Amino acid sequence: MSDSIFWLDSDEEPRSREDTRIAALIVEPYPDGRRVRLALNITPFIERPNLEIYARKIDGPLVAEMSIIETMTPRLEFTLHIRGLQDTSGDYLVRVELFYDERTQPQDIREITFNIPAPNTREIDTRPQA
Fold first, then answer.
1. Dist CA 20 CA 12 (whole Å)
2. How buried is residue 86: exposed, middle or buried, by Cβ count under 10 Å (0-12/13-18/19+)?
3. H-state helical runs in the chain
4. 10 Å Cβ neighbour count for 58?
5. Going by C-beta distance under 8 Å and a sequence separation of 6 or more, which residues neighbour residue 80?
6. Nearest alpha-carbon partner for 63 in 43, 81, 40
7. Any idea of the CA torsion for 95, 20, 68, 53, to the nearest 10 degrees?
8. Continuous segment of H or E residues that includes residue 36
9. Domain ranges in the chain?
10. What distance in Å separates the CA atoms of residue 59 and residue 53, rounded to the nearest whole number?
11. How far is it, in rounded angstroms, from Cα 96 to Cα 106?
12. Contact residues for 98 (Cβ-Cβ < 8 A; gap 6+)
């Protein structure tokens, strides 16, 4: 019997916890300026890692956060909702921390900045809503 994880659709072998890393992070604001799509890839793993995700305005407060405990899949997608701001336009930073035992000692960190344009410059989404 193989030790590999059967549900992986990757040619990569699962890695030990010491070698598990954040492979990719993509952030895309929705046209409404109040939500952000976050796509995250982790290297294939043997032991399920934990993740802490934070979004903050570059010059201001924390606007979203989430905790993922022992993720079962290396490919994740979320929608973060921007909270606590009347005007959501501006520059933001998303930080993802991957850890196992101690949240205070992440073994990998990925950060990315993005911009939510001012309301009068946003593209209008004319697609029908489902």
1. 12
2. exposed
3. none
4. 11
5. 35, 36, 38, 53, 55, 64, 66, 94
6. 81
7. 0
8. strand 35-42
9. 17-116
10. 18
11. 9
12. 20, 21, 22, 42, 49, 50, 51, 106, 107, 108, 109
- Give CA–CA dist 101/78, Å, rounded: 23
Residues with Cβ within 8 Å of 2's Cβ and at least 6 positions away in sequence, in order, are none
| Greater pLDDT, 43 or 123 | 43
Helix/strand/coil for 77: strand
Of 95, 96, 77, give the one whose Cα is nearest residue 35: 77
Summarize the confidence of residues 66-76 as an average pLDDT.
96
92, with CB counted inside 10 A (0-12, 13-18, 19+), is: buried
Instruction: Give the domain 17-116 fold.
Output: Immunoglobulin-like (2.60.40)
- Give percent of the chain above pLDDT 90: 75
